[in-house]
Design goal:
Length: about 110
């Protein structure tokens, strides 16, 4: 697996985990199988990630300037990330910290 594929997989793993937490808590699923709407969303994200033109230079979708997601999808994803993000700290601390730093740097870039 090359670096780019690794990055893609890491991002997909993060999104999969976040949707999983959200679906289990909010939609009361068993945490193994997603409900149909979350599964559909995950399929959508997977397709967007596979088609991402900026995988090489960008860090995470949430910090990316290219908006791949359709507005209503983006809204749902952001809602899921706000809910699951803090819970991810206990599961994958390093990934979350990395994510936060990148987000912070991106936000700073916009101000400057
Ligand atoms: Zn669900």
């Amino acid at each position: 697996m090359d670096k780019l594929e690794h990055k893609r997989k890491q991002e997909l793993d993060t999104v999969t985990e976040m949707i999983g937490i959200y679906c289990r808590d909010i939609h009361k699923t068993d945490g193994i199988k997603l409900c149909p709407s979350c599964q559909e969303l995950l399929d959508y994200v997977e397709k967007r990630l596979a088609a991402c033109p900026r995988m090489e230079d960008k860090s995470f979708c949430s910090a990316c300037k290219t908006h791949c997601y359709a507005p209503h999808r983006r809204e749902i994803i952001q809602k899921i990330m706000r809910y699951s993000g803090p819970k991810m700290i206990f599961r994958s601390p390093l990934l979350v910290i990395k994510h936060k730093i990148i987000q912070w740097l991106t936000a700073r870039e916009k101000i400057l």
